[in-house]
């Protein structure tokens, strides 16, 4: 918490003079979403600055362009709270709500924020698939399932790009490399790769449309 505020008080030169959000960053999207996109944490000069997850940074540029191509977003850019962006059948959030030092959230921060993610999921009654952006988000999604009263298999499913776990259940997991510059600039994650994952996500949500993710359906 102190770090996010310190960053806001001493931003890089390109953002000098801007007023930073510098608070926990909420999720964003369609309340009737079937696809939940789960990232790591707000970027120091992205969501921590703009107040919206994956907004105002290169990762967000890549992600929202892909969501637009897949029909989930009405425009390919996300730069500010008032930029007119709207999502359809998709909700975007992060496992950690505050910008962490070096953009590297810790498991402790993830566990501290878990109750907020559980509360968020409880309001998203139609979510059927969690698209996990990276191994950290995958682990958070497994913890989220357990906290929501859903059992996980042993051994736990392993993260991988394009990996699908718990298919056919009330809350399936889908893996995708995180759209960080480290991945997109090196070609580890390409537009074609994330587009393919989103096609899979659409198919999974259609197939799981009749499943519920509330605790009463645990184990189904």
Question: What does this protein structure show overall?
Answer:
- This protein has 220 residues and is an alpha/beta fold.
- It has one domain: Uracil-DNA Glycosylase, subunit E (3-Layer(aba) Sandwich).
- Helices cover 34% and strands 11% of the residues.
- It has helices at residues 2-9, 47-50, 58-69, 107-123, 135-147, 181-184, 191-207; strands at 28-29, 35-39, 90-94, 129-133, 164-165, 172-176.
- A 6-stranded mixed β-sheet has the order 1-3-2-4-6-5, with helices on both faces.
- Helix 3 (58-69) crosses helix 7 (191-207) and helix 4 packs across helix 5 (135-147).
How would you sum up this structure in a few lines?
The chain is α/β, with parallel strands linked by helices and 220 residues long.
Summarize the helix and strand pattern as letters: HEEHHEHEHEEHH
CATH fold-type name: Uracil-DNA Glycosylase, subunit E
* Global outline: globular
What is the architecture at the second tier of CATH?
A: 3-Layer(aba) Sandwich
In total, how many domains does the architecture comprise? 1
| Largest sheet composition | 6 strands, mixed
CATH C-level: Alpha Beta
Chain-averaged pLDDT: 92
Give the amount of beta strand, in percent: 5-15%
How far from one another are the termini? 39 Å
**What is Rg?**
16 Å
